[in-house]
Amino acid sequence: MIQTPSSGDSVLCCLSAGSVGGHFLLYATAFRRSTWLQTERSIFAWHAISYLLQPVVLMLVAWHWDLEAALPSIIFAAALHGIYSLSFLELWSLTQGSYSLGILAHVSKAGGHATPADLGRLQSVGQSKQSSRQADLGRMGLVRPDGTRTLAGRLAAIPLRTILWLSNGRSMN
Amino acid sequence: MWGVLVILYCLMAACLHAGLARLKPEGNRVQQFLLAGGASGLGLLFNISRLHDITPPEWLAAIAVYAFACELYIFLFTFVTSSVSVALLLGEKEAVTVSTNTRGMVEQRLTTMVAAGLLDRKADRFQLTARSRLMVAVYQILRRFFRHDVGQ
User: Fold this and answer.
1) Does A103 touch chain B (CB under 8 A)?
2) What is the domain range of residue A72?
3) pTM metric for this prediction
4) What ipTM is given for this predicted complex?
5) Domain edge (last residue) among A74, A95, A116
6) Residue B96, Cβ density class (10 Å: 0-12 exposed, 13-18 middle, ≥19 buried)
7) Is B28 in CB contact (< 8 Å) with chain A?
């Protein structure tokens, strides 16, 4: 049997939904045009800071009622923000650097059809993508300058292989 | 109690997905997960509605956490199969090397996209399908919204 909500619960649930909506509106109306939100790192930080701040603010608000009773509302808020941020960041990075969407846009630009020779020009995109990703892995400490995997790189590969095995998928190798 | 149920139903969704992916390996993994996750989600809804004295925030939290976990899992398994970084990290060679066979990389993507119904291959030409035309239109709107096209 579901109980009726208390006024504190309602306030917290409205606050959490409002904070997600507010975060998006702030981006769409003000920060979208700023140059500092154009990089992967800064857009991730924009979401991560908000995601970490939200529970703290909600806990401060809930302090006036009953913090323990407010815990489910705070968990709801965190999950809602997670769904929003993950969707936003996925769309952001897909439209920024997806190889497949890049190929489709390339075919579209060529009038909706292209020959394998036209698409062969995308090989340079593939190579530059691989080089930049290898440099990123180096910066993250996952590979050494000589290309061998560090201990962190080997450890990071374990959950990735597990997910690959679980979903019966194949990486792009 | 609702937290335990959410964890159990998330695990059930992942196991069902693993089973479907093995029963029909050529199938679309996202569609298979939507089926597995949807069925498990219905089970979760049924079970938490039968819990005594569950409060509305607990009910909402259970649904939202389950939905977030499902979205995260979809993101993870699509990421490991399509990410260039993951491919480099999981490569079978001892050292991570930039492949000189980028032609193979393009061809592999094109084959995958034809199989997924995003491109039609007709007489040695690749054509956009109705679905991919819509995707390109949405892609271009979103690129403008995120201002990725600035300076290009």
Assistant:
1) yes
2) 7-95
3) 0.83
4) 0.83
5) A95
6) buried
7) no
Domain check: are A118 and A78 in the same one? no
Place of tokens 């080997």: A154
Q: Is residue A27 part of a domain?
A: yes
Per-residue model confidence as pLDDT tens digits over A95-143: 987 878 888 888 888 887 777 777 766 777 667 777 788 888 888 888 8
Q: Phi, psi (5° rounding) for residue A53?
A: -75, -35
Residues in B touching A142 (Cβ below 8 Å): 89
Look up residue A143 and give its DSSP letter: B
Size of interface A-B (CB pairs under 8 A): 236
Closest CA to A163 of B17, B91, B35: B17
When CB atoms are compared, the residue of A126, A163, A173 closest to B106 is: A126
Query: What is the pLDDT confidence band of residue B126, given thresholds at 50, 70 and 90?
Result: confident
Put simply, whether A121 touches B (Cβ < 8 Å) is no
Domain boundary among A51, A73, A95: A95
Q: How far is B47 from chain A (nearest CA, A)?
A: 11
